[in-house]
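Reviewer 2 asked us to include a model.

Predict the structure of this chain.
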Amino acid sequence: MCSERERAEQEAEAGGPTHTAQRIPPSPGNVAAMKIRAAVLEEFGAPLVVQEVELAGPQAGEVLVRLHACGVCHTDMYSASGVDPSGYAPTVLGHEGAGVVEAIGERVTSLRVGDHVVTLFSPQCRECVHCRSDKTNICLAIRDQQGKGHLPDGTTRLSRDGEPIRHFMGTSTFAEATVMPEIALAKINPEAPLDRACLFACGLSTGLGAAMNTAKVEAGSFCVVFGAGMVGLGAVAGARLMGAERIVCVDLSADRLALAKGQGATDVMVGGPDAVAQLLEMTDGFGADYTFEATGNVKVMAQAVEAARMGWGLCTVTGVAGKGETLDVLPRWLITGRRIAGSSFGGVKGRDQVPQLVQRYLDGDIDVDAFLSHSITLDEVNKGFDLMHDQDGIRSVIAF
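Predicted model (structure tokens):
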């Protein structure tokens, strides 16, 4: 899943979330400002308000996308709750979007009108020191302004009655349309249904990438995935695609464990305080070659570390813990060879690798249909939060 901690770090680097946004003047080009409907976070802890706002046309290096679908992700609910230390309001939430390019600004070279795209909260400029390295997917190009709720030039394209509304994670996809940097859009095969493709904008890619990019699961290995939400199920699928021999999924929900079986889990286990002991028994006392944590619960994170194999086990953490929570790890777990890695967006370099993952879905390698639990309208966005809170299904998708 996307990392609120990273956004908090961006805010700290930028001087905190109190920075005053500026609205860009109307576009002098051929794209006039338009009225769109969007779900606005007016105040923390309150329901989102679907209303009409103004969206200015794309500036240089930017793209106007007409959204067709958007997943409702835990990160959106987390930010709306007010516990996100980097949160701000008002803002248009949403980041798991897919749509069609409607207009482009000057100096846009990789996209054209009519292209189908997936939105990327984690951009890829292909030029910064991080993008040129195969060690990370965390692009530095627009990190500062994105953390402030701005587009790269330090302004916003969203406004209401002349007052700016800040962007969320550089995306703001709980809306009929959005303007985003070219480097934060992945061009995909137009044959992919957009209500499925949008899931690759965050949760699904995070899980797949955790296994395929961060951990680089080896064929024939023993893997354990803690958590069977979108990210955890993606990690199960990723481990299967990498050729893992045994994949154990641990969760509290029987329904979700059944879904894990469908994604390639060879074994399932109801979570609890005895989970590590059971896993050690399954591995002759050594532990798993690879473990994945996808819950955000720090106690489960500790279990994932302890369940990793003595000597070479790798624990990959994708879940986002609550504000102020810490992970307690016994040093002897590390001294005896266990390792811990964090994974943001599954180490996926979005513009290059999201289209590849979408193609694997089209090729039949990834079952995306099983993740789409509810189709809702923009007016029902708060229902999407309620369904998530009740753990009703895996993903609600807004259809525009």
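The first helix runs from residue 4 to 14. The first strand starts at residue 22 and ends at 23. We have added this to the supplementary material.
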